[in-house]
Amino acid sequence: MSKVHDMGGREEKRPIPFLSCADKSEELSPTHWTSRTLAITLAMGFLRVWNLDSSRFFRESLPKSEYLSSSYYKRWFLALEKMIENFEIISNDNADKFSNKVLQPEEVSKVLKKGSPSIRSKKELPTFLIGDEVLTRTNFKNVFFKRGHTRLPEYAMGKKGRIILYHRAHVYPDSNAHFKGEAPEYLYTVEFASQELWGKSYPNRKDTVTLDLWEPYLKKANEAK
Amino acid sequence: MPHDNHNSPNDESSDLPDEMTLRVKSLETILTKKGLIDPKTLDEIIDFYSNKVGPKNGAYVVAKSWTDDKFRTQILKDPDKVLKELGFFGRQGEHVVVLENTTEVHNLVVCTLCSCYPWPLLGLPPSWYKSDEYRSRSVREPREVLREFGFNIPDEQNIKVWDSTAEVRYLVLPMRPEGTDGMSLEELSSLVTRDSMIGAGNPISPRRTDE
After folding, report:
1. Which parts of chain B have pLDDT scores under 70?
2. Residue A184 confidence (pLDDT)
3. How big, in percent rounded to 5, are the helix, strand and coil portions of chain B?
4. Rounded Cα gap, residues B147 and B153, in angstroms
């Protein structure tokens, strides 16, 4: 069964709610709840109780109807409430533990400009080279956690593609989202013919879709399934 | 193009504003009382994304690439190094790849699993980019999607859709519009729209003065 957040290629007839660049209604506001939600979520992240991958997992684990009926920042807010509850952040004595980690106003610019690169080193050599043909795994599931987080979308499972970029090793979300360690894995950009993904009825033979995929999502194209 | 945004769950205005305003305010108050956040920090974060980063950063990179071949070569080859030097590095833009549009290839960026986007270069993503409709349709029928945006891709130009499934962030380098010879870096930057750097539009074409 596909997960609610895994949207790629889903049957969808509605037009995209497109607003041109000239539209100012999306600008951030110091008081609007959407901007406050963004800021609270980022600030709480610096307590280092959870990580980026686990936040994504909490958002995509919202009940399907709640996810689909909520706007982007409402999803953020609902997931934030759940994380605060789940990790018992504000219960009794816990809050005091974080006092030395609270993000200070004067640190904001510096930490946001620094970011948190996900690149890591890894001893073993990568299995694939640029140009290799690969197959994505069929019916791929998180091995660390039942119905856990993964970044291989369903529409790209069991498909043949070609490696076009190599990004070295990165934090592996399937593990990190569930606090099983960063477990770095090699990351590649894999290019798929759109007709491989959507069938021969897709009109343009040369169009492609690329995804950034970690090594465990892939196998050699000539390997048995 | 007319759209009724009120039918879309991704339109922030479709939630009851009063309810969400109250809920968010109440959470902010509790977290502040517990000493876990500082409201002044939140103001700084909002100010940072309102004033310090935004599409003008990406537009500078594009315009500079149009005018400076050496820069263009570097930004395509080692974007992170160049972006660090420019101060356009940071959260949600730690591993950037620049995609060059040509007469043969048009690039379009999406994140089907959430809404990954190059924040230091383009600011925060627009609502349409985060919408379920865009996330569903852009990989499957990119030409239809672009037509809906008022933007026709000729059949002979291939579309490459980039689904940002990891921490790599993509910036589209659109083609320089005609009639821009001799323009300054600043003038060129003003032609580079946010949407053109996602692949969802073209840069603005300068109006010809002899017409």
Report:
1. 1-17, 208-211
2. 98
3. 45, 10, 40
4. 8
- Whether residue B26 lies within 8 A of chain A, CB to CB, comes out as no
Identity of residue B92 = Q
CATH 3.90.330.10 fits B54-197, yes or no: yes
DSSP helix/strand/coil, B31: helix
Q: Tell me how far apart the alpha carbons of residues A83 and A80 are, in angstroms, rounded to a whole number.
A: 5
CA atoms of B110 and B159, how far apart (whole Å)? 13
The domains of chain B are located at 16-49, 54-197
Q: Which residues of chain B neighbour A51 with C-beta distances below 8 Å?
A: none
**Cβ distance B46 to A27 under 8 Å?**
no
CATH architecture of A133-220: Roll (2.30)
Instruction: Give the residue from A3, A4, A7 with the most B CB atoms within 10 Å of its CB, the best one to mutate.
Output: A7
* ipTM rounded to 2 decimals: 0.96
Cα of A12 to nearest chain B Cα, Å: 6
The widest CA-to-CA distance across chain B, in whole angstroms, is: 65
pLDDT at A178: 98
Q: Are B163 and B139 in contact (CB under 8 A)?
A: yes
- Return the higher-pLDDT residue of A208 and A223: A208
Which residue, among A201, A16, A56, A134, has the nearest Cα to B108 in the 3D structure?
Answer: A16
Q: Where are the domains of chain A?
A: 33-115, 133-220
Contacts of B142 in chain A (CB under 8 A): 207
Give residue B3's pLDDT: 41
pLDDT at A97: 83
Given a contact cutoff of 8 angstroms between Cβ atoms, the answer to whether A63 and A184 are in contact is no
Closest CA of chain A from B181, distance in Å:
24
Contact B144, B197 (CB under 8 A): no
B102-143 pLDDT tens trace: 999 999 999 999 999 999 999 999 999 999 999 999 999 999
Taking CB atoms and an 8 Å limit, are B45 and A206 in contact across chains?
A: no
Q: Which two tokens mark B195?
A: 């949407």
What distance in Å separates the CA atoms of residue B55 and residue A199, rounded to the nearest whole number?
36
